[in-house]
Amino acid sequence: MAENAMSTIRATFETREAADLAVEHLVQQHGIARPDIFIQSASNENTTGTESSRGDVSRSDAPHEGEIEVSVDIAPDQMQAVQRSFGDVGALRVSNR
Question: Domains plus CATH for the chain?
């Protein structure tokens, strides 16, 4: 693998709140630009996560149809630190390719 090659790391979360916190860690602790970070449903369903976070409790239209995925391309030397950050904020699963 080339020294400047990037790897995609993905993590899944139960709530949108946890996914947003993961994004903040990527930006503030690892210096990753926010436009380089992607948040989406981990499935084909529209979802806000598998459970409510306090911010969406009153919303009856907030679907809880699956997990939220955060993905970002990072340098290999960032892999362990980013994996640790995802774990610190409650990632259910972390994978890379």
Answer: 7-96 (3.30.70.120)
Query: Helix/strand/coil (H, E, C) string of the chain?
Result: CCCCCCEEEEEEECEHHHHHHHHHHHHHHHCCCHHHEEEEECCCCCCCECCCCHHHCCCCCCCCCCCEEEEEEECHHHHHHHHHHHHHCCCCEEEEC
What is the value of pTM for the model shown? Answer: 0.76
Angle at 17 between CA 66 and CA 37, to 5 degrees: 85
**Distance from the Cα of residue 49 to its chain's centroid:** 12
Q: How many CB atoms lie within 10 A of CB 4?
A: 7
Q: Name the amino acid, one letter, at 85.
A: S
State how far the Cα of 94 lies from the Cα of 38, in Å rounded to an integer: 14
- pLDDT tens figures, 24-58: 999 999 999 999 999 998 877 665 555 555 555 55
| Structure tokens belonging to residue 75 | 């340098």
